[in-house]
Amino acid sequence: MSNAAPSYLTTREVADLLRLKERKVYDLVAEGAIPCVKVTGKLLFPRDLVEAWLARHLDFKCGVEGLKDRPLICCGSHEPLLDWAIRESGSGLAVAFGGSLDGLRRLSKGEAIIAGTHLADEDAALGVSFNLGHVRRQLPGQPVVVIEWARRSQGLIVPPGNPLGLASAADLKRRRIIGRQREAGAYVLLERLLADGGLAIGDIAFVQSPARTESDVAAAVAEGRADAGLAIAAVAKQYRLGFVPLVEERYDLVIWRRSAFEPAVQALLSFSRSATFREQADALGGYDISGSGTVHFNGP
Question: Of 233, 269, 229, whose CA–CA distance to 248 is shortest?
């Protein structure tokens, strides 16, 4: 008689393996988060795939902890239109903006249900690709959905009239530049744009500490502490500063798929389809929301 472990596990056996209640296992099946097959109405779980799935979660240092209910937090990159919409929609979401890469890491650890990102992929300096490559690398095999929030004009914030005549990222050499933290999408984009001009981050003279938000970038330029910084057109307009457009970028919401159906998220997404939302996007300037709500990725 063979003592080999069975190739397929029952729901009870999976629950014992994961130290969870059977009800939680059914929840994971319903959201498509755990590998399983259905045979004659009975759920069976391939042992090798379940163990690989569990190991993947452990690699993210969240293990079974990552299966617990997530807090209603939107993290990632600070986005003026999103920040306003979260408040106006009555969603009840809390915010913890710390940069696009920081947001994906928080999402992977179960610390949030939404991460807002505008991360340039390898070819993004050509205005082609944003976010999906980073999502696949940071959240491999995770049940997330990527929904377009808005396309934004990203470029150089400069003093009124652009007195230094800056026209590209290559013109930033030997200028006083206000930078962003490494976790910010603007930092990633600046690296790409500089590379296109044959420069590296090390060739730029950054002033002071990195700005935590795009408003901080605008404030540094408005107060004369910096000659320029990378940010979006809406912030330049708000501070009555000059703006040199460089790239149309896509800002996406990366949502933990099961959480996408929670009332808080649905309230936000519903509000983003309203006339009030469209009017605010127009008033801020530099936004294209024609593709808002488009699903660009739906993880396993």
Answer: 233
